[in-house]
Write a structure and sequence with these properties.
5-stranded antiparallel beta sheet; alpha+beta; about 190 residues; single chain; about 45% helix
Length: about 190
């Protein structure tokens, strides 16, 4: 009976030892570094490590392909659209899918009519054909029977122009800050 209790403990100990050994083995050999050869600036060290392919990334671990999304706050078209539509309640915002949909909105001028705006991003570039804006109008009668139609109105064009103008401003601001950042790195 004592032997049966002893065997599982040995197996657990053996497995634990193997796991710890494999982790230690994967770390590699410690290489001392000469402080004169390594920059004290952390940004330069990070840049060098990224160029050499060092470090851990989820992309490498998952073996994922070539999908490359910009972070939403760095995309001027996305930021501009959110800022222009900030007075409307948003129903769906999907950066990876490239779509923003507002909820039904009523200005209060006509109680039986509401509009819904959908913005589709066709490219990350600031171009007039990079956006598709769709406006739907909902008209409800007293019995709450509603009719939804897609409309073509001046609102689509006005929104597109406003978004493009704001995106250009964001792009200029980004480029200005980028140049300023590069100058401060040199010093």
């Amino acid at each position: 009976m004592r032997i049966l209790n002893y065997i599982p403990q040995k197996i657990v100990l053996l497995l634990t030892s193997l796991i710890i050994f494999s982790f230690l083995q994967s770390c590699g050999i410690y290489k001392p570094v000469d402080a004169r050869k390594v920059s004290p600036n952390s940004k330069e060290r990070v840049k060098k490590n990224l160029e050499e392919g060092k470090g851990i990334s989820l992309k490498k671990m998952m073996g994922s392909g070539s999908t490359n999304y910009q972070f939403a706050s760095s995309n001027p078209m996305w930021r501009a659209t959110l800022e222009i539509l900030d007075f409307l309640p948003l129903a769906n915002v999907d950066y990876s899918g490239g779509i923003i949909t507002t909820d039904w909105y009523n200005e209060g001028t006509s109680l039986d009519e509401s509009i819904k705006i959908t913005v589709r991003f066709l490219t990350n570039e600031i171009r007039s054909d990079g956006l598709k804006i769709i406006v739907h109008k909902k008209r409800c009668n007293v019995d709450q029977n509603c009719n939804v139609t897609k409309i073509s109105s001046a609102l689509e064009q006005e929104l597109q122009v406003a978004i493009l103008k704001k995106a250009i401003l964001f792009e200029k601001e980004y480029n200005k800050n980028k140049k300023k950042f590069k100058r401060s790195d040199i010093k």
